[in-house]
């Protein structure tokens, strides 16, 4: 019966800023010790009241809602100067409340690379297994034999994980075409350390419903802990330093309720932990005078400590969708264009949590490497050289139209979206000098490096080979683009630049490094403390130093699990 060390409504041992993937893990794990008090400040609302966040099929309907920060990327030369959205969750649960739920750990070599970079083998693939398993409750369906490796998975973690349980027409031609075209060998489990090939896709879905950071890590039992306070609608606006402290010490967070306009301050007795994500963590540091001096000054803010790596090294997976028309009317386009059908399926989902809406339009996931003799390697060294398990790109086949452009009024489609998973393009996050408190300037750097566009070109041509497989003739699969572009690098590049989006898997804007790394190369040390100041840690996607060879959610979850142990051991 140890009383929490919460001495008032405004003073806590830890103040965590941001209740997304990382913040929810930390709030849960740190309050396992009932003598430690935690305030979780979240800018968005509680994760209740929107069915789109729960029913997997309709998740993308949240994209334009108030559960999204609705950021856009600055015009990208690599995307023919288009301005495209950069989605981020603005709700308890963060981006895990609005994301595509794809559950990927990445290749073993990703984790071994981080371990070598940090000189700390506790980060390697084998040693991270306990965290992967701690995150996951894998729930196999009755038909899933041979579709995953049971020894790979956790069975009692907060995040429910499952495969698509809907028996759709597309499953058979997908696997047959992979075989006939020779493009992808079957891989029984892409989460066993080697994702290369085609596998059954794993989703953060349990019982037909989204499993998010909020539903998993902040469930009712956790919320009932007296040493945890969750305060929603509270956007941290600035960290305030203790006057005269040396090294400069931060213990106070200023926040604003964007609904009522009310402002307030809270204090952390031990640490402020920033978990506001890859865009808002660097933005908050910059607004607090912590970042590259020139960027801070340009925004009219007094620089306090020069931290050159804040907001730099931003890296994400540019994504390129492309579509084929098919002659079956069994694609999910039928649901999207027919509200009566959608409502029938929603009734089924409401009644029994079964049916087409229990999953997205994806069922398989494909990871590939460029051939070692690809011409680009004459001029660019392979970022994944010698790592047979590390994909250069990914392809996701959807049972419907998935282009950014509106779906044609008639017809049925299958869409393949390609992600460049080992990008060499880099971008940045800075404050807008015209409005430093408003949306940051997000420069994804998309397709600014020739390697990335080469990779996507190769990926699309590989997909075209996949669609030439005999099985697709049954469905009269026809490209919804001029097939001549496949024979011209410049025409294909034009397609890619006109149709790609900037990504959803950004990392590295406050990256972790060794304790004794050269000054300014990273932002936090191995203990997740911001270097050069006292009282602030960062734990979220922004600390992940390299672009993951898969989607980013699981890496963030397990980094946060590991960080929680490090913080508990070294409070
Ligand atoms: C549309 C979309 C689709 C995606 N699909 C997938 C997928 O299928 N699979 C996958 O693995 N990954 C996917 N991702 C990526 C994955 O969701 C993120 O990498 C992950 O959630 C990042 O975790 P985080 O804790 O760093 O940030 P987030 O989960 O984004 O959480 C940050 C939280 O901080 C809050 N916040 C921000 N600023 C402040 C502030 N100043 N004060 C208080 N709170 C603040 C935000 O509101 C948010 O709740 C997707 C992301 C998006 C947006």
Automatic annotation (TrEMBL):
The Glucose-methanol-choline oxidoreductase C-terminal domain, residue ranges: 423-560
Family: Belongs to the GMC oxidoreductase family.
Protein name, UniProt field: pyranose dehydrogenase (acceptor)
Pfam family, one: GMC_oxred_C
Keyword field: FAD, Flavoprotein, Secreted, Signal
EC code(s) of this entry: 1.1.99.29
Location of the Glucose-methanol-choline oxidoreductase N-terminal domain: 12-317
UniProt-annotated catalytic positions: 505, 551
Reactions mediated catalytically: pyranose + acceptor = pyranos-3-ulose + reduced acceptor; a pyranoside + acceptor = a pyranosid-3-ulose + reduced acceptor; pyranose + acceptor = pyranos-2-ulose + reduced acceptor; a pyranoside + acceptor = a pyranosid-3,4-diulose + reduced acceptor
Cofactor: FAD
Protein function: Catalyzes the single-oxidation or sequential double oxidation reaction of carbohydrates primarily at carbon-2 and/or carbon-3 with the concomitant reduction of the flavin. Accepts only a narrow range of electron acceptors such as substituted benzoquinones and complexed metal ions and reacts extremely slowly with O(2) as acceptor.
Localization (cell): Secreted
């Amino acid at each position: 019966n140890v009383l929490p060390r919460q001495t008032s409504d405004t003073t806590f041992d830890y103040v965590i800023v941001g209740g997304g993937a990382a913040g929810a893990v930390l709030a849960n794990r740190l309050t396992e010790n009932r003598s430690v008090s935690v305030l979780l400040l979240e800018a968005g609302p509680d994760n209740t009241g929107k069915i789109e966040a729960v029913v997997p099929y309709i998740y993308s309907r949240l994209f334009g809602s108030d559960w999204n920060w609705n950021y856009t990327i600055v015009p990208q030369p690599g995307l023919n100067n288009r301005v495209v959205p950069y989605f981020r969750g603005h709700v308890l649960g963060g981006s895990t409340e609005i994301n595509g739920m794809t559950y990927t750990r990445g290749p073993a070599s990703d984790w071994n690379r981080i371990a070598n970079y940090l000189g700390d083998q506790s980060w390697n693939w084998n040693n991270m297994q306990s965290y992967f398993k701690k995150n996951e409750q894998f729930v196999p369906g009755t038909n899933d034999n041979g579709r995953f490796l049971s020894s790979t998975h956790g069975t009692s973690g907060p995040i429910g994980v499952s495969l698509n349980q809907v028996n759709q027409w597309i499953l058979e031609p997908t696997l047959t075409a992979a075989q006939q075209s020779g493009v992808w060998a079957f891989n029984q489990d892409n989460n066993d350390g080697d994702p290369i090939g085609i596998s059954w896709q794993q989703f953060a879905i349990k019982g037909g419903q989204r499993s998010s950071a909020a539903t998993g890590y902040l469930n009712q039992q956790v919320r009932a802990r007296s040493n945890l306070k969750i305060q929603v609608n509270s956007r941290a606006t600035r960290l305030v330093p203790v006057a005269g402290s040396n090294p400069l010490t931060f213990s106070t967070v200023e926040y604003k309720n964007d609904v009522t306009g009310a402002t307030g301050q809270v204090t952390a007795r031990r640490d402020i932990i920033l978990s506001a994500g890859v865009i808002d963590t660097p933005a908050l540091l910059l607004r607090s005078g912590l970042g590259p001096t020139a960027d801070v000054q340009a925004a009219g803010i007094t620089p306090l400590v020069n931290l050159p790596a804040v907001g730099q090294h931003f890296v994400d997976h540019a994504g390129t969708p492309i579509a084929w028309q098919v002659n079956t009317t069994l694609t999910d386009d039928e649901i999207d264009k027919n509200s009566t059908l959608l409502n029938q399926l929603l009734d089924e989902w409401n009644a029994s949590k079964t049916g087409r809406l229990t999953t997205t339009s994806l069922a398989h996931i494909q990871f590939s490497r460029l051939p070692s003799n690809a011409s680009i390697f004459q001029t660019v060294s392979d970022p994944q050289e010698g790592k047979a398990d590390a994909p250069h790109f990914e392809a996701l086949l959807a049972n419907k139209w998935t282009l950014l452009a509106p779906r044609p009024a008639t017809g049925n489609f299958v869409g393949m979206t390609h992600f460049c998973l080992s990008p060499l393009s880099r971008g940045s996050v800075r404050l807008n000098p015209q409005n430093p408190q408003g949306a940051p300037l997000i420069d994804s750097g998309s397709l600014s490096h020739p390697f990335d566009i080469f990779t996507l070109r190769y990926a699309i041509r590989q997909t075209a080979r996949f669609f030439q497989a005999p099985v697709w003739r049954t469905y009269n699969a026809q490209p919804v683009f001029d097939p001549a572009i496949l024979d011209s690098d410049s025409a294909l590049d034009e397609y890619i630049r006109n149709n790609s989006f900037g990504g959803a898997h950004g990392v590295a804007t406050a990256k972790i490094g060794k304790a004794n790394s050269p000054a300014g190369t990273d932002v936090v040390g191995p203990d997740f403390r911001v270097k050069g100041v006292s009282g602030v840690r960062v734990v979220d996607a922004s600390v992940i130093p390299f672009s993951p060879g898969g989607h980013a959610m699981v890496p963030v979850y397990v980094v946060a699990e590991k960080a929680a142990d490090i913080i508990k051991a070294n409070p």
